[in-house]
Amino acid sequence: MLQNKERIIRTLQSLPLREKVLAINILLYIFVGGGILYRALFRNASWPAYLIGIAFLSMGMYRFYLFYKALTRGERGGEVAEK
User: Which of 5, 15, 40, 54 has the greatest CB tally within 10 Å of its CB?
Assistant: First the structure.
């Protein structure tokens, strides 16, 4: 597990600027979605606020999943090497 974390951190440090911006974008989606849901819960907002918050959170988490999947696939050689 520790080797996995070290490998991911090393990969993140060697990413080009485009991928680093993508990682920041993913975090923003998750924080904005969480912020909207937090405000909706404690302000008794209407259902569109909950829907928008859940949409932002789910988009951020899906993008995180795709980003993580791409990082872990990098050393194995991609889909072609698995066939």
Answer: 40
